[in-house]
Amino acid sequence: MYYSRKQAGTPIHDLWSLDTQNTKAGNGQKVAIQDHYSTSDGLVYSADRTIVAWIADNSVYSKNLATAQVQQHTQHLGSPYDLKFSSSGDLIYSDAGAVYLISMESGKVSQLLAWHYANEPQALEEPADYIAEEQIKLIQYVASERDKRKQRFEHNKAVKQSNPTVNQNVFYFDSSMELVEVSVSPDLSKAIVVNRQSGESRSDDDIMPNYIKENGRIKAESVRARVADAEPVEHQVWFLDLNTQEKHKLGYDALDGFDEDVLASVKAENAARKGEEYKSEKAPRAIGLMVDWYWDQSAIQWNAEGTNVAIMLEAWDNKDRWIATVDWQDKVLQQQHRLHDNAWINYKFNSFGWLNNSDSLFYLSEETGFANLFTKPLNGKANNLTPGSYEVDELTLTRDDNYIYFQANKKHPGIYEIYRVALSTGEIESLTDLNGQTYYALSPDEKSLLLHHSKLTQPPELYLQSAQPQAAVTRLTHTVSDEFLAYDWVAPQIVPVASDHVESPIYSRIYMPKRLNSEKQYPAVIFNHGAGYLQNSHLGWSGYFREFMFHSFLVQQGYIVMDMDYRASMGYGRDWRTAIYRQMGTPEIQDLQDGVDWLVENARVDREKVGTYGGSYGGFMTFMALFTQPDLFQAGAALRPVTDWAHYNTPYTSNILNIPDVDPIAFERSSPIYFAEGLNKPLLINAPMVDDNVFFVDVVRLVQRLIELKKEDFETAIYPVEPHGFREPTSWLDEYRRIYKLMETHVK
């Protein structure tokens, strides 16, 4: 087993190996640099699990698991990607406009498929105009030369077509297009190619000044476009027949709702605000391959034999997801599943594929309100294997189709354990009971689970367990320093905070002394996590480990700290996720109000001594709280904050607020800059200047707005060398010192 481990005090990560058969081997051994090629994150296995292959340093390798012999198949040629095995056991990979085949028997590398975005070569060009036409008619020499060119072209073409060593599968597409993805069937008889319109998605105005460069000059860095400038993106799906060298474009008209006006009510509301009337009409929607921000699989999935393919598609307006197969005879898509959401389709929980030994699909879907696992025979009825109010993810299908392993928060929203479901009976078995946050990898022989487990005050470590229900667990690694373990950290409690707006509680981390002084009222700080769609009130180690340490410090200084999984957070189902649709900053701030009430009623907090802070989305929430509910907090710190959603990126923002041209109401309702006049409490704004996620200009525009509104109680700290996530320890220290000073001065 291999794992990555960060060196203390450096940015370097070492590769370590550990013999899982020797559980007393400590943390294992550091792999020598010259041996790093011997493994990779993207391992692929042959169907019988006897050979594993990977790409390392732009070369393709394989290893015979019985003999441990490693073979190098290519040597630093191009940039190979998308490595997989064919149904015959050979290797396929893509590189620079072509797909290649590696024979595992002979070692020969041959080109299987190539494509070009250009006009297909022709024997003769058509005359460009009248003069050219007449030239050919009147001048015998010109006509003769054209005829000779045609003869040579057709002869060379015939020679090439009769040569068995030459790749015949060369396809041409419109020169205005570019590749999105290509996928060849395991039996090598078919391919799916997905194209889109080529061209820059950003303009020359999308730049960011970088003031601190090694050469002492200012550099204008290119950055992403804004959602305000977004244009619909359409993908073309093509079926290539590699036996006949024919290509067929697959239309979307077989998909339910492909031409539905799903934003009709939104458009009508915005039109009414302008005194206009909107008339809804059907029109084809922009549709393309599904993009899931969490998966490492393709949106194109072939069955084991290569006789069927499933393609996951999404609408650019974010309201629909489809799984479609291909009717090879009629050259059309066939819908197998549609997931519609009036808010937006989640960019998580989209894993899908085929069972190994039947023409049945498995997939995740939020259609019940939570991410459940379904199976569905081709053109048959779907079956929910995991009904219930919990989230299922991290799927692993066994080779014999007996089980699908998965991770779920079945027993508590903040506890993630490993389960498996029997496909024949639907029985769900609990495999782990570690009560924290647990991820897993099923061993190649499917007999063991490698577990990546953490708890509230314990960073992740590796464990080993037999792949059986409630089997004994063996801890493999102890990688945390003695210095960290010796420190008396404040262990947060996970508590359900009652909501005045929804039935479900708001799960929250509470940091407080082991015993509260019954004669004292405490000041408090509420931390707002970033991303929006992120879970932090789980029972595992938080990705906000710096904040964990800062919160321990605040408790030692006499504060109570709360960290809420407000509405919009991950782990609590579809309705919790989409509560912010078209109203970012409203339900979250309502939840913060409930948090303050809980602190007052349960933790002896003084209502007049509560502050708040957060970064990114949490910084946005700090703004919205201070601007729209100015009596809720006594001070706030907004770090790397969004101030105007029209300036943020398209993939994230258009999900929640649509786009400004369609739904300006949602953007104005959700952007802090429109509510800045509400500020009457001290505000700290911390802004990194080399932030290519939330641009520095967001803060610049808001500060100018506050100046024009004659606001006094705000200050701005800039960080000239920092991106969205700080890198320099001195910057982190400066930021936390400023937050602490703000709370000491205006809250405590």
UniProtKB/TrEMBL annotation:
Annotated SUPFAM superfamilies: alpha/beta-Hydrolases (SSF53474), DPP6 N-terminal domain-like (SSF82171)
Signal peptide: none
Domain Peptidase S9 prolyl oligopeptidase catalytic per the UniProt entry, residue ranges: 552-747
Gene3D superfamilies, A to Z: alpha/beta hydrolase, Dipeptidylpeptidase IV, N-terminal domain
PANTHER family assigned to the protein according to its UniProt record, in alphabetical order: DIPEPTIDYL PEPTIDASE 9 (PTHR11731:SF193), PROTEASE FAMILY S9B,C DIPEPTIDYL-PEPTIDASE IV-RELATED (PTHR11731)
Residue span, Dipeptidylpeptidase IV N-terminal domain: 299-460
InterPro entries noted in UniProt: AB_hydrolase_fold, Peptidase_S9_cat, Peptidase_S9B_N, Serine_Prot_S9B/DPPIV
Protein species of origin: Planctobacterium marinum
Pfam family, one: DPPIV_N
Protein name: Peptidase S9
Highest taxon above the source species: Bacteria
MF (Gene Ontology): dipeptidyl-peptidase activity; serine-type peptidase activity
BP GO terms, sorted: proteolysis
